[in-house]
Amino acid sequence: MAQERIVVVEDSATQALKLQILLEQEGFDAVCAYTAEEAMDELNRRLPQLLIVDYHLPGIQGDEFCRQIHLNLSTRSIPILMLTADEAVATQMHGLESGADDFVSKSEDAEILLLRVHNLLRRSRQSASIAEMSRPRFRRPKVLVIDDSETYRETLAAELREEGCEVTLINSGWEGLDYLEQNDFDCVLVDMVMPDLDGVEVCQELAKKRHASESPIVILMISAYENKENVARALEAGADDFVGKSTQMSLLRARLRALLRRKFLLEENSRIIEEFKAKEMQALRATAEKEAAEAKVMLAAGLEKANAELADTNRKLKEAQLHLIQSEKMASLGQLVAGIAHEINNPLSFALSNVFTIQQWLDEVAADPGNQLTEGTARRLEKIGARIADSGQGLDRVRDLVVQLRTFSRLDEGEFKTIDLREAFESVVLFLRHKMSERITLVRDFAENNMLSCYAGQLNQVLMNVVANAVDAIKGDGTIVLRTARRDDGFFEISVKDSGQGIPADIRERIFDPFFTTKAVGQGTGLGLAISYGIVQSHRGRIEVDSEIGLGTEIRILIPMDLT
Questions:
Q1: What's the pLDDT score for residue 68?
Q2: Other C-beta atoms within 10 Å of 307: how many?
Q3: CA 187: distance to chain centroid?
């Protein structure tokens, strides 16, 4: 812990050394100053925790030094212990009234003195943080004396230097004004009656310059002619006070001291105000910078969010446009397909009936032993039967196509209920088992809860179409992964992933178009995925496709979990 610093202000070198040794033995850092002026210089270098001041000092007296200490914001909280050899009650009262915190006689026992020191230091520790607000600026008053009397000038200079002032002597008004243009002074003492330029005129010139100065110079008019008229002339000319030359020097010093004390107090107040303004501006600037930084961050976050929302809106708008186009296409196509299916149905039924009748007749002819058919006739009937059988198979494919066309045109029909998707998948797998044989391995990755409300018949057809396409996509051995999952965005995801050859990028966007197929002629109608797309869309869902050549294809069906 750093030593506590005590400044001893004592003009007696013997007494100062005695106190310094006593304090250092107690563990303090003691510094001696032999005048109040030296003490002020020491305070400008470093603030102590305690001042011990002799009441009787050369120059500035101890009581006046106390007053100046308490005028400064940085030093007013420093405790002051006043010493004196004069034990009179009046002297003690005068010292305490000047601002001292305690008063002790020089003849007092050393132990009592140290007790008083420790007691005052407790007060200094409590106010240490306040003392750091600003640094002191103690300085000796600079006084200019303008008087044509050399004798009076020298006498006055001696008195003012004893008061602690820096004194400059000038013997004429014009020379004094020129000197004031080049130098700064705190106070001007000017004789009222002088040749060439008298004190009143000097005072008037100085008063003009006061308006532009933040710390105006103090003017004290002096004159050997003490009367009411001269006092009035001096004050009207701008002087701060008037003192006759016959007045006791102690009174002149007291008046000058009061004027300078007021001036220094105003300077200190202005300095403190400027410091507080600077700190306030610094705080406001820091607050403004912080708010600006926060606003910038918020603006950046807002822009990022707005851009993300705009991108998402654009994506949804694009999807909605595609869905709308597809819906309109599907709706108009559905009406066309319904008409075609209706027109085909009756001729198809008639053709199938005739094929069945002819086939039955040929079988009867061939089986009747009464018909003696030649070998050639039998072969011709056999060929006819084979062709009729082929025709029947072709008509069966046409009938399947008509069924799918009718389904395609009636996507909004069916019962709405809750189904178990695991069971739906297993039904589809069982139905397609003959196509898979032993070459395809099924991997099941189902969610814990697979219940979904939907149009059951339609969604079963979607599963059938998608799984059948996955089976057809695998030419040899391969794997199909069936997966379900409940997503955080409110959709139920149904995934069918195969290990086939994948879908080329140039045709990937066409796979949901009606009658588009990559299968060989006669092996597909091109309506399976188109039907599936329409069913999923009618459920307010969507289909996503991921495919890579050589690595297979994944079809993801997304259905809202809440369709109510």
A1: 82
A2: 10
A3: 55
Pick from 136, 164, 162, 160: which is nearest to 267 by CA?
Answer: 136
Q: Are 467 and 429 in contact (CB under 8 A)?
A: yes
Lowest mean pLDDT of 116-120, 323-327, 534-538, name the range: 323-327
pTM for the model:
0.37
pLDDT digits (tens, 9 = 90+) for 446-474: 999 999 988 888 888 889 889 988 898 89
DSSP state of 216: P
The tally of CA atoms less than 13 A away on the side-chain side of residue 253 is 18
> How far is Cα 525 from Cα 69, in angstroms, rounded to an integer?
107
Would you say residue 364 has pLDDT above 50? yes
- Rounded Cα distance, 372 and 376, in Å: 12
398-424 burial string, b = 16+ CB within 10 Å, else e? ebebbebbebbbebeebeeeebebeeb
Tell me how far apart the alpha carbons of residues 113 and 435 are, in angstroms, rounded to a whole number: 114
Answer whether 242's CB lies under 8 Å from 224's CB: no
Tell me, what's the pLDDT at 333? 47
Number of Cα atoms under 13 Å in the Cβ half of residue 377: 7
Mean predicted lDDT score pLDDT of the chain? 79
Q: DSSP for 464-489, please give it.
A: HHHHHHHHHH-SSSEEEEEEEEE-TT
